Structures are given as C-alpha cells and as structure tokens.
Amino acid sequence: MIKLGVAPIAWTNDDMPELGSENTFEQCISEMALAGYTGTEIGNKYPKDPETLKAYLEPRGLEVASAWFSAYLTVEPFERTAERFIEHRDFLHAMGAKVIVVSEQGHSIQGQEDTPVFEDKPYFTDDEWNLLTEGLEKLGELAHEKDMEIVYHHHMGTGVQTTEEIDRLMENTDPAKVSLLFDTGHLVYSGEDPIEIYERYSDRIKHIHFKDIRKEKMEEVKANKDSFLTGVRKGAFTVPGDGMIDFKPIWEKINQAGYEGWIVVEAEQDPAVANPFLYAQKAREYIKDVTGL
After folding, report:
1. Average pLDDT along the chain
2. pTM here?
3. Who contacts 73 (Cβ-Cβ below 8 Å, separation ≥6)?
4. What is the 3-state secondary structure (H, E, C) of the chain?
5. CA–CA distance, 31 with 18 (Å, rounded to integer)
6. Within 13 Å of residue 287, how many CA atoms lie on the same side as its CB?
7. Which of 16, 158, 252, 290 is deepest in the core (most CB within 10 A)?
8. According to the model, what pLDDT value does residue 155 have?
9. In whole angstroms, what is the distance from residue 274 CA to residue 107 CA?
10. Which of 208, 290, 217 minimizes the C-alpha distance to 257?
11. Number of CB atoms found within 10 A of residue 125's CB
C-alpha cells in the first residue's frame, strides 16, 4: 500500500530555473522510471493538460503522486487562494492524485536569495494563525468535493517550520479536514526530531517526503547566515542514504503505523553537481535496503 515516487526538482529547480535548465521534461520522467520509481510530483516543465501529461507518464509506468500548492491565507482574501486552489485541485484529480500538498507562503522567505533562513524566519500573529487554520479547513472541504485530502507541508523559511508551529497547526485544525505531510529533511534542517513528529501525528500523516541533509553544508548555512536558496545551491539537501539522517528508525515508525500512500524522494540540489539520475538510483537502492520496498 506504499508507492515510491521522486520529485522533478532534482532535474530542474522551479524556484531557481537556471538549475537544470538544460534538462528536458522527457529526460526527467524517463530517468525517474529507469531508476525504479512509479510516481512523480509536478514540475514547471510538465504539460498542464491532463491528457497530454498522461500520454507521457503512462508509457513509463508513472503516476502523479501530488503537486505543491502555494497558499496565501495570511495575506490575501480567502477567495483569491480558493480560486487558484480549485484549478489546482481539478488538475490533480484528473491525474488521479489523492492528496494536495499545501504550504502557506504568506511572509515566506524560502524564495528570497539574500534573506538568512534561520535568523529571519517569519512568525505569524494570532490573527494570522486564525486566518491560516480557518482557511486550511475550508481548503480541506474543497478537496473533499473531489474525494481528496490536503496535506500541509511544514517548510524551512515559513511560518510553519518548528515542532511548536506544527503542533499549533495540528491542534487548531480539524483532523477530518487537514492532514500533514511529513518531510524528513525539513524537520532535521530545522532542528526538530522527525521520529517525535511521526509518532505524534502518524494518524494524520498522509504524504511523505524522504529527503536527507549534508550536515557540514547545513552548519555552513547557519554559520554564514545563508538563505534557503543559497543552502540549496551549496548542497545542504541530498537524497536518502547520502546524508546525516538514519532512515531505519524512521521507517520502523512508518511501517508500525501502517502508513498507506506515497513516499516521494525529494532533494533539491544543483543537477550539474549532483547528477539527478545517479542520485535517484542511489536513493532507490538505499530505500530498498532499508524498507524492502
């Protein structure tokens, strides 16, 4: 009941399109399949028409696991976010996806080249928290119209990054309407305990990102007060089996909880430095060794 996918951000970075600009969409999905994955998330080079995209993915044995949606619930009227969300939802539904990745980008610094990711992380006011939690529940209701779920992506450089912030989000949203995306890399990068988070919210986790961290690069980002994007360029992120995270105890918790859904390998780094196909293979072999999948 667990499927393995890989994110296209290793081939072309949507936040920094110059990273991997030379890699084509067809190369990306062909190498995903060749490396042994059966799913993908969506990148900016992917066709936006469902039937066109299916014609590329199906011969390669690939499904769409999900795709990122940027919400701005804390800084714009709900109706504006909802309009974009419905279009995004309908596209994913046409592709057969069951979950929609949502991350609040109000006040986010993750896309700012020169803003220190640790020192200048945003914090929401009580009013903004209310806008966020109430808005997410409404998005969850919209997802239910298509028998889908939203999974919230805690993320470096945003207002929902730390354990305390994840706790507040979970405590103030209806479990029937708002689920959680579990991202190993973002938790470790932020200094959180991924096993603690998984144990606490295993019944609400409906999508997983497996991402690793190069410890020396992370420490360099902290010491130099680098931005999130600078950290990506320096190689702070990598694939499972190539960094500091031991995925064996994490997998034990996932397996014990009876998780069903996608595990997606995601590691944004410069493809000119880290060949995306070879790293996808490395991750696939490591995951097989650890999980048997």
Report:
1. 97
2. 0.97
3. 81, 104, 106, 131, 132, 135, 136
4. CEEEEECHHHCCCCCCCCCCCCCCHHHHHHHHHHCCCCEEECCCCCCCCHHHHHHHHHHHCCEEEECEEEECCCCCCHHHHHHHHHHHHHHHHHCCCCEEEEEECCCCCCCCCCCCCCCCCCCCCHHHHHHHHHHHHHHHHHHHCCCCEEEEECCCCCCCCCHHHHHHHHHCCCCCCEEEEEEHHHHHHHCCCHHHHHHHHCCCEEEEEECEECHHHHHHHHHHCCCHHHHHHHCCEECCCCCCCCHHHHHHHHHHCCCCEEEEECCCCCCCCCCHHHHHHHHHHHHHHHHCC
5. 20
6. 26
7. 158
8. 98
9. 31
10. 208
11. 11
Write out the two tokens for 177.
């309407």
Q: Please report the domains of the chain, with CATH numbers, ordered by start residue.
A: 2-291 (3.20.20.150)
**Phi, psi at residue 69, to the nearest 5°?**
-130, 125
Give me the residue label for tokens 């959680």.
180
Q: Are strands 237-238 and 212-213 parallel, antiparallel or unpaired?
A: antiparallel
Q: What is the pLDDT of residues 186-218, one digit of tens each?
A: 999 999 999 999 999 999 999 999 999 999 999
Going by C-beta distance under 8 Å and a sequence separation of 6 or more, which residues neighbour residue 179?
A: 99, 149, 150, 151, 152, 204, 205, 206, 207
Q: What is the pLDDT of residues 168-189, one digit of tens each?
A: 999 999 999 999 999 999 999 9
Structure token digits, residue 166: 């994840």
Say which residues have a Cβ less than 8 Å from residue 138's Cβ, sequence separation at least 6: 78, 82
Q: Which pair of structure tokens corresponds to residue 36?
A: 């042994």
Place of tokens 């034990």: 252
